[in-house]
Design brief:
Layout (H helix, E strand, L loop, with lengths): L17 H8 L6 E6 L4 H12 L3 E7 L1 H11 L7 E4 L3 H13 L5 E4 L4 H8 L13 E7 L7 E4 L9 H17 L6 E5 L10 H14 L7 E6 L1 H5 L1 H6 L12 E3 L3 H14 L3 E7 L5 E2 L7 H21 L5
Parallel strand pairs: 1-2, 1-4, 2-3, 4-11, 6-9, 7-8, 7-9
Antiparallel strand pairs: 5-6, 5-10, 10-11
Length: 323
């Protein structure tokens, strides 16, 4: 068994049970082949191995073989049952990992200790990448101690200033994820600074348009409301005080941020001020991509793997691998 020894500041927290409920949904599912790009740092490697031991994934490790083995010895983990695919650099490891996904040998892509732009460069390559007709977007799946269920925040990592059309895909990606997690009819709160529509704040116009698009079937499978300020979105009492009658207020599954800065600040604020755990995932590509931070705990990395497994199995039911 793996002995988890977290680096300073990366304590493995017990959480509130929300991630454990996600893990429980994976118990009856077969582990999914996963290409791990450049796991050359202890936390990245331990997260992948721990997810393997929990029966979530079957990792294939891409990177310099000697460095991976040295990292393994220093971390005290056993990778004797895992395949190592030698690649000299981070970009080379990312390219080979993406190639394994394209050929169907892996159904999940996982970021190791390379830079995010090195991994995403391989993913978005027009000739050899993993693009689909959807806009690629990022979600944080958060376990917030003061909230009653897992909370999805999007997009706080990829789309800097999304257009209305971008937000349609960002929203649909998050909805499909929430459904994969077992939410029958996800509730989406579209965030802005105020709850009224005004031309002076473009995010409010986008929110109103997205709600109308959902009514017309351009966004499917969820209940949308917005614009909603954060207090109105997260608190039914706050919404009631402001005279907002909304089935989403106080109970959203998804928070759709107006731009990357707002989404990123919100997620990290919850992590560092509210002791929330944050699992990271990239959606809209051919396969789910586990995109964690080097500052993430092992628990958060395992939760990210569990989310990816649920998405991969949902994808198997909908789309043939390699399509």
């Amino acid at each position: 068994m793996t002995t988890i020894t977290s680096p300073p500041g990366l304590a493995v927290t017990p959480g509130t049970g929300k991630y454990e409920s996600i893990l429980a949904r994976c118990e009856s599912l077969a582990p999914v082949p996963t290409a791990v790009a450049y796991p050359c740092e202890a936390t990245a490697l331990i997260g992948a191995v721990e997810a393997f031991e929990k029966g979530l994934i079957v990792p294939m490790l891409f990177g310099p073989a000697d460095v991976i083995r040295e990292t393994t010895e220093a971390a005290g983990v056993d990778i004797s049952k895992l395949e190592i695919v030698d690649a000299a650099t981070g970009p080379a490891a990312a390219a080979k990992a993406v190639e394994f996904v394209r050929t169907g040998r892996a159904e999940i892509l996982m970021k190791g200790s390379l830079h995010t732009d090195e991994l995403m460069g391989a993913v978005v390559s027009r000739e050899k990448g993993l693009r689909t007709n959807r806009r690629i977007s990022h979600v944080f799946v958060m376990d917030v101690p003061t909230y009653h269920k897992p909370l999805v925040i999007t997009d706080g990592a990829i789309n800097i200033a999304p257009t209305l059309e971008d937000k349609v895909d960002i929203c649909q990606n998050a909805i499909d994820l929430a459904i994969s997690l077992g939410v029958e009819l996800p509730k989406v709160a579209i965030l802005a600074a105020v709850e009224t529509v005004t031309s002076k704040m473009p995010a409010t116009i986008d929110a109103a348009a997205l709600c109308k698009m959902a009514e017309r079937g351009q966004i499917k499978g969820a209940l949308l409301d917005g614009p909603l300020a954060f207090d109105n979105a997260i608190s039914r009492d706050a919404a009631r005080t402001k005279g907002i009658d909304s089935p989403v207020a106080g109970d959203p599954d998804i928070l759709l941020a107006p731009d990357l800065e707002a989404g990123n600040i919100l997620a990290k604020q919850l992590s560092f001020l509210a002791n929330a755990d944050s699992a990271g995932m990239v959606l809209g590509a051919r396969v789910p991509i586990i995109l964690t931070s080097r500052a993430d705990s092992v628990r958060a990395r395992i939760a990210s793997c569990a989310v990816a497994v649920l998405v991969a199995h949902a994808r198997r039911r909908r789309i043939p691998i390699g399509a």
